[in-house]
Structure formats: structure tokens, C-alpha cells
Design goal:
Blueprint lengths: L14 H17 L4 H34 L13
């Protein structure tokens, strides 16, 4: 079993696992216990995870737009309602 403090080099299996990995990285970086090299490695992994999450969100948004255009899904923008 891997030590939870180690930076996970594998690709995330899901959006949720990527977010969990990001939260762990941020906590470790904020702790100030990482060396410069470890911090740079953590930052690089964080950028990769962020890109993965952005890609997943973009795919979800495209799916919602596709369903919306087919009339199968109605999007309600609660933020802009009077």
C-alpha cells in the first residue's frame, strides 16, 4: 500500500479522484514540509490534475448541451433568475 504522503504518479480514474489528489497536494504544499524539488513535482502533478478536471468538466458540459439541443434536458440557470 502506498504512503498517502507520496505524490501519486498514476492518472486519476475519475473527476472525484483527481479532486481528492489535488486537495492532498495542496495540503502538502501548504504545510511547508516539502523540499523545493518535491514542491515543483507536486506543482507539476497539480497542473496535470487540473487539466484532467477541466477536460472532464468540458466533456460534461458538451453532453449537457447535446441533451439540451435534443430537448431531452432543460437547463435552469438559477443564478440569473429574478
Amino acid at each position: 500500500m502506498k504512503n498517502k504522503d507520496e505524490i501519486n504518479e498514476s492518472n486519476p480514474e475519475s473527476f472525484e479522484s483527481a479532486m481528492e489528489q489535488l486537495e492532498t497536494l495542496v495540503s502538502r504544499m501548504e504545510s511547508g514540509e516539502l523540499s523545493l524539488e518535491e514542491s515543483l513535482k507536486a506543482f507539476e502533478k497539480g497542473v496535470q490534475l487540473t487539466r484532467f478536471c477541466q477536460d472532464q468538466l468540458q466533456k460534461a458540459e458538451l453532453k449537457v448541451q447535446e441533451l439540451n439541443s435534443k430537448g431531452e434536458f432543460i437547463h435552469i440557470d438559477q443564478e440569473n433568475e429574478p
